[in-house]
Design brief:
The structure holds two protein chains of two kinds.
Chain A lengths: L1 H37 L3 H4 L14 H9 L2 H31 L6 H10 L5 H14 L7 H4 L7 H12 L3 H9 L4 H12 L1 H17 L2 H6 L8 H11 L4 H21 L1 H13 L2
Chain B lengths: L3 H35 L2 E2 L7 E2 L3 H9 L1 H32 L6 H9 L6 H11 L6 H8 L11 H13 L3 H12 L3 H9 L4 H12 L1 H16 L3 H6 L11 H11 L3 H29 L9
Antiparallel strand pairs in B: 1-2
Helix pairs in contact in B: 1-14, 3-7, 3-8, 3-11, 3-13, 11-14, 13-14
Classes of the chains: A mainly alpha, B mainly alpha.
Chain lengths: 280, 298
């Protein structure tokens, strides 16, 4: 009996491994196809069935993509937007999360619920009046519409940070208060050092979401000298619709930074996911 | 009457949430009300808005076949894609929570596609779906199946986009994985004593224990699905034959291609009400399938 169960168990485990490794190959196939395409000549592109590993390999499309897309400029623009957003989000979220967790004031819960309910407000619902206002004050075409709002808090990150602050025992801050420390002092000297993982996570998520944002830049950036990488890539695609090797070379180049960041910050990613997993 | 301490607390509390409060007024409340007002006007940005009563709404529901198509397309996407991604994400998370060789590498590999920028994903998959020399049809032909006009056939266009979205389920998967790690081991031990098999344990313990996480992802998934835009804008721009004209894409076109701001605002408000209703319905029904540890709604 026991042997038979062991046999079934073993079969199950083998099947599980085969299934997962087969599936992961399918998940990686698009990346392989992308890189493979970017290294092909025009003739190789049309060979059916497709050549997986092109022979010969040509690197010319990367040179062409880089010469047609001002990558460094777009990279600079994207980084400016990302970094200002990180500063804005961290600054505002820390203050607001503190107000929502460490000061016992009347009305706090009502405001907190209002804030949570804004999470359900689709971007499309508010985008038109906001655009009209930004247009009136001549911000359209600048980075301001894509950066300044971050200084006024992001409901999701405030929520994450507040949840984290809640886990920091009050006794610590009470002790500080007896010593006469003000709120800002407590926030900066006691809470923040303990909240480093949560802060790193929020910085990382802010970076990724701004790096990937498309609709915002599409609406607000109309001058090619201010394009972000995502917007620039899309414009490149509409200009060179069927030059697949160049498109795939350009796509590869635009993916690499985010993958590098992922591997550099893998620990923060994992912690961040656990953090977002807390909520229920 | 509030005591001095209480007033002091309120003052400090408000002071700290001030950034968000200002942001709420400027970027949530004002635009919400303003777009309500604009929805009753004809407004092209260059001249002043002109009051036209319910004309925009009448036009949308009774005269604009594109609007109804966009609504239908979006509902299709919500009804098919959201549950599909949810089930696939949970399924993958449960498998990757078992003891598997090279587990952390596998998790990483499944996760990475979800952080690839949407624009890059869209361009890559437009190429994969290329009807003549794309990867998908090459694979189909390899197993002797006929080619499909993935993004060029009105019947296949939506399923193609949904299929592409499966590539990104790693994002949901890791959140479920985090939830799975919080399930207490003694529940499984107790079930083992009772002789429960893997399937019974999954259905009776695992799923109920992570149901709050599933619930949260369901709500966010539905709200996100109503905002589906970038992929359709880049890959098909609404075609073929409006098969991928999704709600937010049509709204964007009216607002920023035709500068019909009043009309688009009416669309925005209808979207707002639909999302609100959908959320309320899911919330109401959640009592039946969401299990909160300790029996308390968090």
């Amino acid at each position: 009996m026991k042997a038979r169960k062991g046999y079934a168990y073993l079969t199950g485990r083998v099947l599980l491994h085969i299934f997962l490794y087969f599936l992961v190959l399918i998940f990686l196939l698009p990346f392989f196809w992308m890189v493979s395409t970017s290294l092909k000549t025009d003739e190789q592109l049309f060979i059916i069935p497709p050549q997986w590993i092109p022979n010969p390999i040509v690197f010319g499309h990367y040179k062409e993509a880089v010469s047609r897309i001002p990558y460094l400029l777009y990279l600079k623009n994207t980084l400016i937007i990302c970094i200002v957003n990180i500063i804005g989000v961290l600054f505002s979220s820390m203050l607001v999360a503190y107000g929502f967790s460490k000061i016992p004031w009347r009305g706090r819960d009502i405001f907190f619920i209002i804030m949570l309910s804004t999470l359900m407000l689709p971007y499309q619902v508010t985008m038109i009046p906001i655009f009209i206002v930004f247009r009136k004050i001549n911000w359209v075409g600048t980075f301001k519409p894509l950066t300044i709002p971050s200084f006024f808090g992001n409901a999701f990150y405030i929520f994450l940070l507040r949840q984290f602050f809640m886990t920091i025992p009050l006794e610590l801050s009470d002790a500080a208060k007896i010593d006469g420390a003000g709120d800002l002092n407590i926030l900066l000297n006691i809470i923040l050092p303990l909240a480093k993982p949560a802060i790193a996570t929020i910085a990382l998520f802010t970076f990724i979401s701004n790096w990937n944002d498309f609709l915002g830049p599409l609406i607000y950036l109309n001058d090619a000298s201010r394009y972000t990488i995502s917007l620039g890539l899309q414009q490149f695609q509409s200009a060179y619709d069927t030059q697949w090797q160049n498109l795939m070379a350009a796509t590869t180049i635009s993916i690499i930074p985010i993958i590098v960041i992922f591997f550099l910050a893998q620990k923060t990613f994992v912690e961040g996911i656990t953090l977002t997993g807390i909520k229920g | 009457m509030l005591t001095r301490t209480e007033r002091n607390y309120i003052k400090r509390g408000l002071l700290f949430i001030l950034p968000w409060l200002l942001g709420f007024l400027a970027f949530n409340l004002y635009p919400l009300l303003a777009s309500f007002y604009y929805s009753f006007t004809s407004y092209n940005v260059l001249t002043l808005p002109e009051w036209i009563g319910f004309e925009n709404y009448k036009e949308l529901f009774f005269n604009d076949s594109l609007f109804l198509i966009s609504l239908k397309n979006t509902l299709y996407y919500v009804v098919v894609a959201v549950p599909l991604y949810l089930v696939a994400g949970v399924f993958l998370a449960i498998l990757l929570n078992l003891k598997v060789k090279g587990m952390s590498l596998l998790r990483t590999m499944f996760y990475i596609p979800s952080i690839v920028p949407i624009v890059a994903t869209a361009i890559l998959w437009r190429w994969i779906f290329n009807p003549q020399i794309g990867l998908m049809n090459a694979l189909l032909n390899k197993v002797r199946l006929p080619s499909i006009g993935w993004l060029t056939d009105p019947f296949w266009a939506k399923p193609s986009l949904i299929l592409m979205g499966l590539w990104g389920i790693g994002g949901g998967m890791v959140i479920y994985l985090a939830g799975l790690q919080d399930v207490p081991q003694d529940l499984y031990d107790a079930a083992d004593v009772d002789g429960a098999n893997w399937w019974q344990k999954t259905i009776k313990i695992t799923i109920p224990m992570i149901s709050p996480v599933i619930f949260f992802n369901l709500i966010m998934g539905i709200i996100g699905a109503f905002q589906y835009f970038t992929q359709a804008y880049i890959m098909t721009n609404g075609g073929p034959l409006n098969a991928t004209l999704f709600y937010s894409l049509y709204l964007y076109q009216n607002a920023f291609t035709f500068f019909k701001m009043g009309y688009a605002s009416a669309q925005a408000w209808i979207l707002f009400i639909i999302v609100l209703l959908a959320t309320v319905i899911v919330f109401k029904s959640s009592a039946r399938f969401v299990f909160y540890q300790g029996g308390e709604l968090k």
